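hey so i finaly got around to running the thing on Protein SCO1/2 from Neobacillus bataviensis. pasting the sequence first so u can double check i didnt mess up the copy paste, my clipboard has been acting weird all day
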Amino acid sequence: MKRIYIICSLAVFLGIAGGISFFLIRDANAAIPASTTFITQSGDTFNFGKDKTKLKLIEFIYTHCPDVCPTTTQKMVDLKEDLLKKGIYGKGIEFVTITIDPYRDTTEILHEYKKGFGIENDNNWLFLTGEKQQIKDDQKQLRKITNALQFQYKDPGNGQFIHSTFTYLVDEDNKFIAKFPMGKEFNKQDVYDKILDKIE
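ok and heres what it spat out for the 3d tokens, dont ask me to read them lol
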């Protein structure tokens, strides 16, 4: 009986360990496809494959979000100030915000969203969306990056998206480094330390 208990316990442990290892390996190998292209809040084309100069802190939002998204953006604004003081914001790290609602979040809407946080003139923080005329293609582009980073989202039909609550740090080659909670759980110090660890 004792042997059966030990064997069962060992099987459960190995199963859990295997599952954890699978997710760790999956995250470690995640990378944004080089072909992923969006439109910036200024109307310019942005291609992840051509931008290999800095680390990127990526957040996914939609501007109609009532809580988690704006809370995360505000915490990133605060983080930006700390990185500016360190002299690395815009040099070693840039921020990228991608809307999961490109149909409603036009370039004009994203510009106003940036303005609301006092970052409308920040060229080192890109806000990305698609074009309404080709919304199906834009959704495919969006899925390329959300699938690569395992970010899940869904519109249940009422315009209030259900989505994962993580932000992502990727390297100069757009490969996954780490992920951090969104909203109130976004720990500015943890993100700051990780960025410095990768730059210095």
